[in-house]
Amino acid sequence: MTAVDPRPLIGEPVSLDLLNTRWNVEGVRQDLLTDTDGLAVWLAANGLERRFTADATTLRHTLAARDALASLVDRPGDPAATARVDAVLDHGRIRATLTTEGPGEEAEFTDPTWGPAWTAARDYLDLLRTAPDRIRACAHEACILHFFDTSRNGTRRWCSMAACGNRAKASRHYARTKDR
């Protein structure tokens, strides 16, 4: 049985969910992927636990993908960051299939331990194709979480209105009342 996911923001696309395996709690950095148990939690949260094993090699490859994606999200278009994500993508491919249900696609990997890393990197490509301007970092200065803005008008600023959005509003209110 997998442990409970302790992260404050879950359910984002798999690439951003991988970035969100690091978060802050009262200024202290937390990291879900410090061991294979944390990897098992992340795999389960993304429906990948049946396809991939939470072992040390998979963890190492997943961390490499997280670091590569973080670099690219922080510096879009940076050639070095782009090359790092592309290096992760080198470990897999999409194979076209035809089944009795019709056409499909299946991911294939040079080594299955690259599967979760490749899946996250591939998902990031899909987000870039869909709406690159909707890939966002939380606007709260102490938050390091990322999200894909699915709001109708594309103006979401916070990872969570209940957490970071509320803290920002409370800070502004406190600053206004303090000056009176």
Structure notes:
The relative contact order is 0.14. It is globular, with a radius of gyration of 18 Å. The strands form three sheets. Strands 1-2 form a two-stranded antiparallel sheet. It is of the alpha+beta class and 180 residues long. It is built from six helices and six strands, in the order H-E-E-H-H-H-E-E-H-E-E-H. The N and C termini lie far apart (54 Å).
Uncertain runs: none
**Portion in helices:** 40-55%
Oligomer: single chain
Q: How are the strands of the biggest sheet laid out side by side?
A: 1-2
The fraction of residues assigned to DSSP E strands is 15-25%
**H/E series:** HEEHHHEEHEEH
Termini gap: 54 Å
DSSP, total strands: 6
SS field, number of helical segments: 6
Structural class: alpha+beta
**Mean of residue pLDDT?**
92
Summarize the structure.
The protein has 180 residues and is α+β, with helices and mostly antiparallel strands. Helices cover 44% and strands 17% of the residues.
Descriptive terms for the model:
6 helices, two-stranded antiparallel ribbon, globular, alpha+beta, single chain, about 45% helix, about 180 residues
